Structure formats: structure tokens, C-alpha cells
């Protein structure tokens, strides 16, 4: 009998409906429910709205710092005196910094096809494609050697130095439109325009010494520097000697190398302000970046 009684009790409990407690006033449904349902409904709606705002705020805070870091990184790329572009494995341009944009705008060595594929001018695109393939092979360890080339220019100026390196994600992605290669371009004819103020602060240079340093970084000879500065050759030699002493070097080639490593890879404030009004930091196919 006890077994039958337990069975009846269990069945009775299973048949009871689930009881519900109001999150606002605490009233139980089995005891008659909320004394004022409309008041509780409004209170619950307000709590849901407050909760949604808090969640939105938390997500925004979580996203704010990465977004700021991303924009700071893009701004840093734009300050380089080195052309930098990101392409797919087939060479289609995805984005570039302003220096790379200027190199393309010159139509002197590199160009884009109508499909947006980066190539060498004068029918040498196959050579560039081969370079891209070498970069891909280097990433998987199947080949050795730098994927680099000197690109001849129709203008007769010194060749562009092009270096291609595959991204870490290139071998892991099978998407042909994914970023696969980083393309670096150095233009030996580029005017350095290193900020004289920074050079003077860094090495304690005089204004004339800073101007001399800029000219040497541009590859000018001593005679060309003296002509540009309207000074005698003996005075120019004195300035160069002062540069050796202040920078801590003994040869002109070493001086230029140290200056480049110190500040020459960064675009000066003057150069950075020219033409910036309507130009985004990076441009790419289907990508929109805000101005700075």
C-alpha cells in the first residue's frame, strides 16, 4: 500500500503546473500573482532596457581599445617613407599606404592593371608573378633567398627596390581574395625631408648641420650639398666633420646609415601635411578608412 501511495503522490506532483515568481514584486502565480500586473510589467521593461544599455556599454568598451590600436597602427604605416601594400596571392591590391600610392601615381616602374593587379611596367608582369610565387614558397620553407628585385623605371631614374614577403596567414587560407603578401618598395630618388627639428633635438645639430644631414641622406655629394646650401666646400667639410662627431661615426656611408635608422624612415611633418586633406590613410579595394 505504501508503494501505491508513493506512486499516487508522485503522479499528483507531476500534474501540478510550474509555479512562477514575479521578478519585480516577488508574488507567486499560485498565490494569485502580482497585485498590480501593469506596474510590474513596466518595471520589468525598464530593467530589460537598463540591462541592454549596460551590455552595449560593456561591448563598446571592449571594442574601443582594439579599434584605437588599429587606427594608430594604420596611421603609423602612413608615416613611413617606405611604400607598403597588401595584396592577394595573385597580386591584387587590397590596401596601401600613401608612399606606395605616390609611387603608383608616378607611373614609373609599377602599375595596376584594370583588374587592380599590381605589376611591373613594360610587359614584365610575369617576373613580378614569379616573385610572388617565391614569397609564397619561402613561407612554407620550400625555397631559400629573399624575394626581392630591382625594378627598372621608364624615366631612367635609379631602379625601385621591391621586396615581397608572404603573410603568416597566407598558407593557412585557401581564399584567393585573402591578404597573402606584403609588398615593400624603396625609392632611392625619394626626397627624404627628415624633420630638421627632430634631428637637431636627437643629435644637437645646428640648423645648417641638420640641412646638410638631410641632403646627404638624399644621396647628394658634398659639392652638391655645398651648392644647395650656398657655402664653400671647406665650410661644408667642416659641417660634415661636426656631423661625424655628434652622431658618433667616422665615415659618410656610416653617417647616412645611422641617420636613416634614426629618423629617415619617418615622413616629416611637412611632407605629411601636403595633400592630406582629402586622402585617406590607406586605400584598398572595397575598403574605406577614415581620414586623420
Key words describing this protein structure:
Arc Repressor Mutant, subunit A, 5-stranded antiparallel sheet, disordered N terminus, 7 strands, 292 residues, alpha+beta
In short:
Helices cover 48% and strands 11% of the residues. The chain is α+β, with helices and mostly antiparallel strands and 292 residues long.
Relative strand content = 5-15%
- The CATH topology of one domain is Beta-Lactamase
Distance between the termini: 85 Å
Pattern of helices and strands: HHEEHEEHEEEHHHHHH
Overall shape: elongated
The quaternary organization reads as: single chain
The CATH superfamily of one domain is identified as: PAS domain
Number of strands: 7
User: Which regions have little confidence, pLDDT < 50, spanning 5+ residues?
Assistant: 1-16, 274-292
**Structural class category:** alpha+beta
Biggest beta sheet summary: 5 strands, antiparallel
Structural commentary:
By secondary structure, this protein is α+β, with helices and mostly antiparallel strands. Among the domains are: 76-190, Beta-Lactamase (2-Layer Sandwich); 196-267, Orthogonal Bundle (Arc Repressor Mutant, subunit A). 48% of the residues lie in helices and 11% in strands. It has 10 helices and 7 strands. The model is unreliable at 1-16 and 274-292 (pLDDT under 50).
Helix and strand topology:
Layout: H1 2-15, H2 37-78, E1 83-87, E2 93-96, H3 98-105, E3 110-112, E4 118-120, H4 125-139, E5 148-151, E6 160-166, E7 181-186, H5 196-203, H6 207-217, H7 222-229, H8 233-247, H9 252-264, H10 269-273
Antiparallel strand pairs: 1-2, 1-7, 3-4, 5-6, 6-7
Amino acid at each position: 500500500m505504501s508503494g501505491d501511495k508513493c506512486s499516487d503522490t508522485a503522479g499528483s506532483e507531476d500534474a501540478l503546473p510550474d509555479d512562477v515568481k514575479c521578478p519585480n514584486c516577488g508574488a507567486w502565480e499560485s498565490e494569485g500573482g502580482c497585485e498590480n500586473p501593469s506596474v510590474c510589467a513596466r518595471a520589468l521593461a525598464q530593467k530589460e532596457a537598463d540591462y541592454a544599455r549596460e551590455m552595449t556599454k560593456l561591448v563598446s568598451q571592449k571594442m574601443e581599445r582594439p579599434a584605437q590600436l588599429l587606427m594608430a597602427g594604420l596611421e603609423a604605416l602612413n608615416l613611413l617613407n617606405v611604400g607598403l601594400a597588401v595584396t592577394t596571392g595573385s597580386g591584387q591590391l587590397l590596401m596601401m599606404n600613401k608612399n606606395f600610392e605616390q609611387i603608383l601615381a608616378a607611373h614609373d616602374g609599377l602599375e595596376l592593371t584594370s583588374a587592380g593587379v599590381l605589376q611591373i611596367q613594360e610587359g614584365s608582369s610575369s617576373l613580378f608573378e614569379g616573385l610572388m610565387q617565391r614569397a609564397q614558397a619561402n613561407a612554407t620553407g620550400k625555397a631559400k633567398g629573399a624575394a626581392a628585385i630591382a625594378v627598372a623605371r621608364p624615366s631612367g631614374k635609379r631602379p625601385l627596390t621591391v621586396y615581397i614577403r608572404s603573410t603568416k596567414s597566407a598558407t593557412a587560407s585557401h581564399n584567393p581574395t585573402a591578404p597573402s603578401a606584403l609588398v615593400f618598395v624603396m625609392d632611392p630618388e625619394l626626397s627624404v625631408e627628415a624633420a630638421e627639428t627632430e634631428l637637431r633635438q636627437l643629435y644637437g645639430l645646428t640648423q645648417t648641420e641638420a640641412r646638410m644631414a638631410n641632403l646627404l641622406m638624399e644621396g647628394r655629394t658634398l659639392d652638391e650639398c655645398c651648392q644647395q646650401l650656398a657655402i664653400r666646400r671647406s665650410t661644408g667639410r667642416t659641417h660634415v666633420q661636426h656631423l661625424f662627431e655628434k652622431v658618433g661615426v667616422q665615415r659618410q656611408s656610416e653617417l647616412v646609415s645611422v641617420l636613416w635608422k634614426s629618423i629617415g624612415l619617418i615622413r616629416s611633418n611637412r611632407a605629411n601635411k601636403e595633400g592630406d586633406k582629402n586622402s585617406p590613410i590607406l586605400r584598398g579595394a572595397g575598403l574605406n578608412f577614415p581620414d586623420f
